[in-house]
Amino acid sequence: MDGAKIKSLCWRLTIGLELLTAVLAVPTAVLFIVIAGVYSFEKSLLVVLGAAIALFTSYVIPTIRFLRLKKLLKKTIPDLFHSLSLEEKQKIKLTLLKFPKHNLSYFLIQWSFGIPFAAFVTFQFFTPTLAEYLPYIILPILIYPVLGVSHFFLSELVISEVLITPELKDLPLKAELIPKVGIYARIFFTMSAVFSMTLTALGYLLLAQVTKFVQIQNAEVTLVLMAAFITINIFVLTSLFVKAMKFNTIQMANRYKSLASGDLSESVPIISTDELGHGSISLNSFIASIRKITSIVIEESDKVKSDAKVIATQTQGLTQAMMEQASSSEEMSAGVEEMSASIRSTAFGAKKQHDITKEAKNLVTDMESSIVSIHDMMNLTQTETKQMEEETKLGQSALQSTLVAMSDIESSVENTSNVIQVIGEISDKIGLLSLNASIEAARAGDAGRGFAVVASEISKLGEQTLSNTKRILEAVSKASASTKSGRLAVSNTEKTFTQIGKSVHTTIELIKQSSEMTKQQLDLVKNVKENIEKLTMSAMEIEQNTNEQASTSEELAKSIATITEGTEYLNQFVNDIDKLCSALSNKASNLRQTIDFFKI
């Protein structure tokens, strides 16, 4: 930055700050004093006069700020700046970053002198009342927050034009040395300034109106004017805040775009003391690391490409030697493979024979188990049939006893029938006797009436006895018939048991014969089993011997195969090394082309 630009920047900052003062502070202050102090028109003109005189008189403070800033910025002229040490350069940059915060002291001094001086000039023309004097005391609460926030943002915007110059942009700073005024603090103080002005002005007017301390005339016009000036203050503060944030954000966004296109040649300027400004330090550190890594990668890729060519040249002779060794190993491996195949075939036949004999042994064992089970079942069956024969004989004896008892019952039934017939005959005789008695009683007349009654009852008894005798005789006849049928059935059953006994005896004889045959089969199976076991042992010995021969030949084949594989592997390895060197060389070239995307 040359002298003309420095002078222009100092003028722009000074005029901008004073315009903010003239636009935001002075009109609001004058309006508040006039309204809150209930000044008359003549006194209002005197208030304006006093404010104008104080404003021009206080310009000595902006002049001092102008000269000090100009002196500081002259150190950033390239010829002078490059002659300074790194610490001096960093101190200049740090001072510029702190300037927006230090600038607040200038406006505090300016207004701490200006407000009392304006009151002093105004009150030279008349003696003020308490109501006219009090607004000057409250005025700092109304004005200072708005002026402080607006001066801070404008100073930061103007100073950022210096911080983005090539001399200061890439100058590194330690994060702990940079003051921090975070976004949260910026928003908080901006909102506080707006609310402070609104609450102070309207609160004082409402309190004065309620307490009758002053009588405000044309309250509607007053409120409209105050609202208009407050709106202007809010608009200006918001614009400055957004512009400061936008300027910093645009710088970050432009740098991100450059990074996306591979441009590592520039860093992000630190133009603010908020989180974005402090984030620029981390981003610059990242860019510096990427730039360093890119330089190392470019250098190493060139070395890799050169070394790959050397290795590829040396591996060509080794490849030829490995190919000759692989050919010899393959011939030896083919002969061993033929011998190994013959031994494996013999081993396979021995194993198959062993499996067959083992399977036959298992079948004979199963057959032996089955015959033993059959023999046991025969013995059990023989025992059960003997018991059945004895029980059949017992049943046959019981049936013969039942048959004798049934004959006795039949004889008793026949005797009972004879007795019942005798009772029937007696009943007939009783009937005849009762008839004769009735006749004789009739002949006797009245003297025989009682006898006639007795004769009648005897006649009835005889009839009942005769009737019962007939029923008993029928029942006895049926019992006799049933007894005969039962005797016949028992006789048939006795014959059946006799046949069953004969059959059981025959079965017992057959089971004895079967048991003897199964015993003979067991002896035969044991002999077969012993012979098969001997055959199995012989087959196992043959299998073991052939397996040992096969193992020996396989180990020899494996050894030769290992040599062959080792030779082929070395050959392949050498070829892979050759290919890898070629690929490595290509990758080094590609890596160099890729890394050339970044512009250091």
TrEMBL record:
Database matches in InterPro entries: HAMP_dom (IPR003660), MCPsignal_dom (IPR004089)
The keyword Membrane appears for this protein: yes
SUPFAM superfamilies recorded: Methyl-accepting chemotaxis protein (MCP) signaling domain
Methyl-accepting transducer domain location: 300-564
Domain HAMP residues, every copy: 257-295
Key word Transmembrane present: yes
Keywords, sorted A to Z: Membrane, Transducer, Transmembrane, Transmembrane helix
UniProt protein name: Methyl-accepting chemotaxis protein
Organism annotation: Leptospira levettii
